[in-house]
Design a protein that fits this description.
Length: about 375
Amino acid sequence: MKCKWVLITRTLAAAVAVWPAMGAENNTTAQPEHRDGVSSRKEALEKFGRANRAHDLIGMSVKNGQNEKLGKVNDLIVDLPTSHIVGVILSTGGILGAGSKDLLVPPAAFTSDAADKTLRLMADKNKLTAAPEFDAKKWEEGAQDASLTGVYEYYGQPPYHAWNEPTVHNHNLARRAAYERASKLIGMQVRNSQDEKVGKVEDLVVSLESSRVHEVIVAAGGFLGLGDEYSAVPPSSFGFNAQRDALQLNVTKEAMKNAPHFKANEWPNFEDPNYVNGVNRSYNVDNTGRNVRDRNGQSVTPTDQGNDQADLKVTQQIRREIVGRKELSVTAKNIKVITVNGHVTLRGPVKTAEEKRIISEITDRVARPENVDNQLEVNLTTSN
């Protein structure tokens, strides 16, 4: 099938790449209590990101740094097996002056404005006018790996497959079949391996900052004999049935009953690592082993990036130059660049020592060697 995306060349991506401003206002969710007894909302947000209900995000207004309205969130595309958000569908609604069109935007390009109840996207209208258009009716085509890479680079973000484990790097048709709209998942029937109706999907708990789907909320109180209660279930515990009109949850009724559940009007704090980890343990899921950054002890989310304009400018310039170097592999272009108070940290794998040298030279020139912490690792087995 012919792809309906406008593929953006790396040169264009390098010329116009942006990096989102970080550090939007915190909301009023209670601080989590860590195992060491130290309450730290900041640490929780750095690891998990700000938790939102997908139902609340869909339809939310999107503005830029100049407070200009750019459109609204039409939907989210999620990948339950990897617990990730593939992209946010932004509907411009004719605001850009060129008719209504949908765009796919990397989730981490957004920041939350809790006070204004909007999302912020650090891009002007000209950039969005020239952005790759997303055909909402044929989004399965747009979810192809090459198209996703072009879109992510356009917004100055590492390609989607860089956020996942190595076995997911080569997205084949079977893997892409796991992509689905959040709006379609909400309300979808959930059945167990005995084909018994467990309940339905009430909502998804997601974080745009960390590009994660934290939990799937299932209304399963009737099935469990618990009345009006919801169960939080790790997204990787689900699969689709053959018709793709229901989710299959291969867990016993007893196991699900013993796992965390809550009343419909008393939602827990999904920004609490202890709660989320407890849910995952109940279903024998270890999310830290499913994400390359976490597994390597290199968990980096947009909340690490400094909000100062000088820091943002440094990161943006370094990333532009890295993306623009044709001799660098996709792996090298996926490395993390974080600038805080003028200090730049480089993290992630590169394929060769020469790639590490090139990136080091770029960073040293932009930020000066004394301000650079180079944690890049040469990994000859890393796929491109």
